[in-house]
User: What shape does this take?
Amino acid sequence: MSQGEAARRGTAKPQDQGWAWMVLLAAVLLQGLTLGFPCCIGVFFTDLQHEFQASNSQTSWFPSIMVAVLHGGGPLCSILVERFGCRFVVMLGGLLSGLGMVSSSFCKSISQLYLTAGLITGLGSCFSFQGGVTVLGYYFVRWRTLANAVASTGVSLGFTLWPLLSQYLLEEMGWRNTFLIFGGILLNCCVCGAIMRPIQVASGSLPQSAKPEEGPGSKAEEAQLSNGASPHQPTLQQHTTRTKCFQVLQKYLAFDIFCQNKRYQIYTLGVTWMMMGFGLPHVYLVPYAIHNGVEEHKAALLISIIGVINIFIRPFTGLLSGHRVFTGRRIYLFSLAALLCGLSNFICVISAQFSVLILYCVILSIAMSGVGALVFQVLMDVVDMDRFSSALGLFTILESITLLIGPPLTGLLVDVTSDFHYVFYNSSFFMVSAGLFMGLSFCALEKKNKQREASKARLDNPSRYQYSETSTEPKAERQSPPAVEYVTSI
Assistant: This one.
């Protein structure tokens, strides 16, 4: 193979070494620039309200749209990655993110922010983040788990640095100039994407997806058309179109798994419900502190405290959950983390003093670390790895809906009652109820399966196994995830 041909086909570099570690560094920066960015929006909440004379509900739509698009754009991002590659998608995301924030600095109404900072920046962040995570699957095989764990520390770094930088720039330059500077900072996603050179994958890894039209049915249709069966051509084309649409939905939105796999069904519904309250503290904690007399720079420091603790606790939680003792039981750890996250909100109801809010941030960050570290590990436990990518598509779409509507609905309640305590009441309700639902449902399902197995053992009739419900127990942990997938994080 000539050098020119090798350059066109990709960089044939050894995996898990050399340039792979530069790609990992770029992935860390990407996660800090994308997933960590929405946490700083609360710093601008009060200024945006005064600028546009907007209510709490109207203002909270802006960060809600951003976060919802960031999580829910996974299927679209996966399609673009398969078509154009990770490097292109990451750089495209950087351009969209930068363009969105630069445009936001010229907005004349809060509704314009929904489009620029919410939709455009959110979609760009989705492309950059998920494209950066996907490329790690190409560059790392042996150290893939370590690479993903290290890359996730970028989220915590973003949580730490974005609020402090936002508060400083806001005091010095105002929110419009700050958004303009943010646009330039987010353009660095393009630099990170440029580092992610295409790597030559093993031959045969993507043979079928490259030629979906060569299925068994398409050749028969082709033969009929070549024989002059023109009256049937519209019908065959419609059938082919429907088949392709069904294949796309089956690949990226696994409704069949949702209907057949009770564990996946319970987990997806539980997390979707939980997301109604999970993002509320990120949006309203800073406005709540300022409303109760806390200085603005101290209020911004609260979000940074959550980020600093996440840097250390999240990797520890991931390593702890990987112990064989928790194999098949991680859902209970996740439910416990959701319960703790919900119960911690009552600290804010007791008092709004800065020292009490610091205690709240410490406890909340520990619980959030458990949720963030386990959310996708549990999903891998409840579905087969060969369908993980499609199961993740439906999972992220559903959770993005509740991430979108949760803060505005709570903001509307605050507008009506003029009481910020309802933010934390709502968050506690959704988090606690979701944690109890998932934990008790999985416990009941596990008990039911044990009773069924005991009954089968007594009957000693192996032929009855074919009529039993399909087992959804997690496969062996050593099974590697597919090379191309899109992953979100919390």
